[in-house]
Write a structure and sequence with these properties.
The protein is of the alpha+beta class. The protein has 16 helices and 18 strands.
């Protein structure tokens, strides 16, 4: 089928042909820059028009044309690079007739190089006065006039490359995310942790309760899962004596999509031999405060109209206590299965077939009644054993040494005093298999290799996982996970 071009696209292709007639490659070549828009501004800071005339500052920059005002023999353009924008003045007098004739073939969106010196206009605007002009890349499609104002926000995610050109906020997020991750890495490294990488393909479903993606390895003629967690291989490294490890890992869960969920996402999991739940509490609170102080330079946040304060020690509260506040029922008492079921039915919570003990009901009541109200940073601890198959039991064996961190009603972190009793672990895996038989698609499978590792001795260990995408959403005040993932999973275009 013949490609249908708009009038603008036709005009740009005609100019492309004219560039080639002039012997100019429309796709450019290497261009060595000495500066960018930011360094130009830094070099000119505090200098008047007269200062710049008296003490010439030469620069060589490149970028995309975002604004173009052609005025006969002299023109102004605005160049955009990674650091921002800067104005350029170009004329026949400064670059010569041949270069200026090439310049006249440019459009908004084209990429060009400028060698020149800094000046100020009569209005005081910092400008690069071009001495040499180099054409680098022809843009065959015009930029939208107001891309970030489109009513269909999904178009921004589908065409992220255009979003980054047109939307300063999108670029800020794209550059802010790695700064947050680097700060977290430094915090962990400074405390003696070692960053590692483990396999994405796994023969066993384990480390979390979630539906997996399944793929097939042809040479082995065997199905594998894309990992749903990095937990089990990292704990094997603790058995191996690495003692303090962490991994920023891409995970894959075959579940729904919304403003807080994407099928592929990033977590950091960290494990410390000889640690426990309290050492993970200190690390979790510490790393978040460190990022706030060193990346955002604050100790509180404004998130979508809510003020979240990180100055004080995070709240520490039992799950059963929060449910008691809402229902008047204390699950630390001897609650019967029938009482728990009636309570869930009272609050219109769907009861699942595999809920064979009261812990499932406690967890469901917490998720339905309590989660959304935990706006300020809150550690919720003592999760039921039924939903914590890899966690040490607490003194009350119905509960475990586990916490989840909630902020703004969302879960951000999940931490354990790790289960290191191989006999207990085998029983937990067997209970998960029974739950799977009763219809729990998210239950863990029996990982014999992990049990074998535990038989060599897993020291008392603390472990934690932190959701990176949600943390970036919170810290950079973004309403959707799709804003903080450069290329989120999308439905097909209609």
């Amino acid at each position: 089928m013949e490609e249908k071009l708009t009038d603008q696209e036709k005009s740009r292709r005609e100019k492309l042909a004219k560039l080639e007639e002039h012997g100019i490659s429309p796709w450019g070549q290497r261009f060595d820059r000495t500066d960018n828009s930011k360094t130009c501004k830094e070099k000119a800071e505090g200098k008047s028009e007269e200062d710049l005339e008296a003490n010439r500052i030469d620069v060589k920059i490149a970028g995309r044309i975002m604004l173009l005002r052609k005025m006969g023999k002299a023109s102004f353009l605005t160049l955009q690079d990674k650091e921002g924008k800067i104005q350029v003045y170009i004329s026949v007098e400064t670059v010569g007739e041949e270069s200026y004739s090439i310049f006249k073939l440019t459009d908004v969106g084209d990429i060009v190089g400028i060698k020149g010196h800094l000046m100020r206009t009569r209005t005081g605007e910092l400008t690069v006065k071009a001495d040499e002009f180099t054409f680098l890349t022809k843009a065959l499609k015009p930029l939208p006039e107001k891309f970030h104002g489109l009513t269909d926000v999904e178009e921004r995610y589908r065409h992220r490359y255009v979003d980054l050109i047109m939307n300063e906020e999108a670029k800020k997020v794209a550059l802010g995310r790695p700064k947050i991750i680097r700060a977290m890495q430094k915090y962990f490294d400074d405390r003696g942790f070692v960053e590692v990488e483990t396999s994405v393909l796994s023969p066993i479903l384990g480390g979390a309760n979630a539906r997996p993606f399944i793929t097939h390895h042809n040479a082995l003629n065997k199905d594998f899962y894309l990992r749903i967690a990095t937990e089990l291989p990292l704990k094997k490294l603790i058995v191996g004596g690495l003692e303090k490890v962490y991994e920023f890992g891409r995970l894959f869960r075959n579940e729904g999509m919304d403003t807080r969920h994407n099928p592929e996402f990033t977590t950091v999991e960290l494990y410390e031999a000889y640690g426990d739940l309290q050492s993970m509490r200190e690390i979790c609170e510490g790393v978040i405060r460190y990022v706030l102080a060193n990346v955002l330079h604050t100790d509180n946040l404004e998130y979508q109209g809510k003020t979240i304060d990180f100055k004080d020690e995070f709240r520490w509260v039992e799950m059963s206590e929060l449910v008691k506040e809402k229902t008047g029922v204390d699950f630390k008492d001897d609650i019967s299965l029938e009482q728990a079921k009636e309570l869930c039915e009272k609050y219109k919570i769907k009861v699942e077939k595999h809920w064979t003990s009261t812990g499932y009901y406690l967890n469901a009541l917490f998720e339905e009644l309590c989660e959304d109200e935990l706006i300020q940073p809150t550690f919720v601890y003592h999760h039921p054993i039924e939903v914590s198959p890899l966690t040490k039991k607490s003194l009350d064996p119905r509960f475990t040494e586990r916490f989840e961190l909630y902020i703004n009603g969302w879960e951000f972190a999940n931490a354990y005093s790790e289960l290191n009793d191989p006999f207990d672990q085998k029983e937990r895996f067997e209970a998960q298999l029974k739950a799977k038989e009763l219809g729990d698609d998210e239950a863990n499978e029996m990982d014999l290799n992990f049990l074998d590792a535990m038989n060599y001795g897993l020291p008392p260990t603390g472990g934690i996982g932190i959701g990176i995408d949600r943390l970036v959403m919170l810290l950079l005040n973004q309403p959707s996970i799709r804003e903080v993932i450069l290329f989120p999973t999308m439905k097909d275009e209609k």
